[in-house]
Amino acid sequence: MNRLPEEVVQVEYNANGWRDVLHPDWVAEDKQRVVVLGDSFIEGYSVRLNDTLTSRLQALLSDEVSQVEVTNLGVGGYGTLQEYLVFDAVGRALQPDVVVLAMFLDNDLRNNTRSLEALITRDSLKYDARPFLQQGDDGEWSISVVDIAAAWRRYLLSLETRRSLWGRMKRESALLQLIDNAVHGPGASRRKIDALDRYLALYGAQFCNAPPEYEEAWGVTRRILRRLRDEVDAAGARLVVMIVPAVHSVDRDAMARVQDNAPDPDRLCLEQSPAGHRLMRELDAIEVPLLDLLPAFRAAAWDRGVELFRRSDDHWNPAGHALAAAELAKFIRERGLLVPDLEREVAPTLTP
Is residue 262 situated within a structural domain? Predict the structure, then answer.
């Protein structure tokens, strides 16, 4: 259960661990397949399963392509490298026709580089259990090794602490949190994060001019995208990248709060979306089509007053998932990435 202030969401996973219905193990030849990679926006644990982008996309595409299968391979907290690894380990075997990579640029770039990720998650599982692309002088493809057993033990210990009486009481009591900090120090449970480091890590992707740390991140991300494109092409599928907009790029109040609280607001260009424009140029260079959801989300929010995000966790609400699915279905249709039933050729029956 995900107990949000707005509602309690039942979060189901299939037997393979994905936020999806359980698809058949075999690959039927008459089906066309769409695999969706991404992070928590695609996993969709802030809404019911039927409200997720992938569930809605399945329904929308089925109107014209009766034999279509949409598979959700989104995992909360994953960066672009991990999403590539998911395709390599799982997605490829599904023999997809279309692979959609959903990119949340406000943290994907950070997730892809040690230096940026370390600014806010060092000494945590989000850092220690994350693989990174090794930056060698020879340019070879090499991924850091994660000690899965150690990470699992650490996770179980953390889970046990959270479930303990003291853990539950401390989470729900501001007074107990103050006492714990007074006794053990504010850095006992998490590293104290410098305000400027936090600002750079959270919003640096949307600085008007990319700082050096993000130029490095773009270089790493470029390598991952090229590798994913090549392997999707080799699998006989087509790669599509979809930009997932952040709440502070869509909601005017959220945008104003970020600007007002920024230590150096003049560096921010939230309304101009520099990261989105940069990604468009990167993808044009490798001939990968891009669907940017930001214009549609702004039109819905600014012109029609539609609420698209949960206020409690800044993820899409059901309306946000519905809009994203509608835009993606339209993009797939207009690009001819799947063959509608009416266009499928049926061999004529010859009679003597």
Answer: yes
Alpha helices in the chain (DSSP H): 40-43, 53-62, 80-86, 105-111, 114-121, 125-128, 148-163, 165-172, 174-184, 195-203, 212-234, 247-250, 252-261, 274-285, 294-298, 304, 318-334
Whole-structure pTM value: 0.88
Task: Count up the domains in the chain and report the number.
Answer: 1
Q: At what angle do helices 165-172 and 148-163 cross, to 10 degrees?
A: 70
The whole domain housing 80 covers: 2-22+30-122+191-341
SS3 156: helix
Query: How is 284-345 classified by DSSP, letter by letter?
Result: HHTT--EEE-HHHHHIIIIIH----B-TTTSSB-HHHHHHHHHHHHHHHHHTT-S--GGG--
Output the CA torsion sign for 49, 51, 53, 55: positive
Is residue 161 assigned to a domain? no
Number of other CB atoms surrounding residue 167 within 10 Å: 14
What's the rounded Cα separation, in Å, for the pair 7 and 168?
Answer: 20
**pLDDT tens-digit map of 121-161:** 877 777 888 999 987 666 789 999 887 777 777 778 777 77
Bridge partners of 248, per DSSP, are none
Residue 7 lies in a domain: yes
pLDDT at 175 over 80: no
d(CA 204, CA 105): 10
336: left (phi over 0), alpha (psi -120 to 50) or beta: left
How far from the centroid of its chain's Cα atoms is residue 52's Cα? 13
Question: Between these two residues, 170 and 78, which has the higher pLDDT value?
Answer: 78
> How far, in Å, CA of 310 to CA of 318, rounded?
9
The kind and range of the H/E element at 34 are: strand 32-38
Give the C-alpha separation, 308 to 322, whole Å: 9
Q: Is residue 64, in this structure, part of any structural domain at all?
A: yes
Q: What is the CATH number of the domain that holds 197?
A: 3.40.50.1110
